Amino acid sequence: LTIFCTALCSDECGKTVVPITKIVGGVQASAGEWPWQGLFLKISALGARIPICGATLISQKWVLTAAHCTVGITHTSLQIDFGVLDYAANEASAKAFAVEKIIDHEAYNNINLLNDISLIKLAGVVTYTDYIIPACLPTADISAGELCWITGWGSTEVSTDARNILREASVPVLNNTQCSSWYSTFNIFSTNLCAGYQAGGVGSCQGDSGGPLVCSDNSGKFYLQGVTSWRAGCGEPDNPGVYTKVSEYVGWIEDRMANF
């Protein structure tokens, strides 16, 4: 009998081997800095790799992403790559996994993006390396004002930037009251977490959806506090990133991983 320990009971989760540079602002990441970052892809009939969304490794068999990335699609011809910095390169650290099952949240609403969270079960078992390590699931909420990290291959404000190279940015967590006042015509739910700067300039954008917002504790262990869901525009003032608040879904995640 083989037992696969989830990220909650693994001492390996959330600890990076490669040091985090922690430069504030959107910059290119270094190989191995964010070892839980996954690239969610569709493989075309001609074999082309088409990026769909970001994703986060949380155990040897399970990945977390946003429901708006997965709803309505079948698991065939889908793939998730880990250990990737430049998805246009043939990197020795990269490992590809087929998708066995997709579990969208049963109460996901594609109009207001309530419950924008989805689990993906991998067809293979991930072997952890210096470049592939799961993020920890949260054991507590994150406080407003804390600096956290977002990563992804999404669009940037600089048109000459290479989208094929993973980027990172540090953003402060906001309280939902402040976030709601900036997004007066959008719903900010208690199951959302907002992060970003009032002045804009740094934040998630198209292509970053489903990827991680991680925050570290005093020991340097990183916890997955948010799944990138949406924002109005990219880098504009008063438009922070809105994330699915993972701490609200730990019970749902554990239940689905145990029963599927």
The radius of gyration computed from the alpha-carbon positions, rounded to a whole number of angstroms, is 17 Å
- Mean of the pLDDT scores? 89
Major β-sheet profile: 6 strands, antiparallel, barrel
Cα distance, first to last residue? 17 Å
Strand-pairing-aware structural class: mainly beta
How much helicity do the residues have?
A: under 10%
Order of helices and strands: EEEEHEEEEEHEEEEH
| CATH top level assignment of the largest domain | Mainly Beta
- Annotated CATH homologous superfamily of the largest domain: Trypsin-like serine proteases
Q: Could you say how many structural domains there are in total?
A: 2
Biggest sheet strand order reads 8-9-10-13-12-11
Task: List the total number of helices.
Answer: 3
User: Any idea what the CATH architecture of the largest domain is?
Assistant: Beta Barrel
Low-confidence stretches: 1-10
Shape: globular
Instruction: Give the number of DSSP strands.
Output: 13
CATH topology of the largest domain: Thrombin, subunit H
Strand content: 25-35%
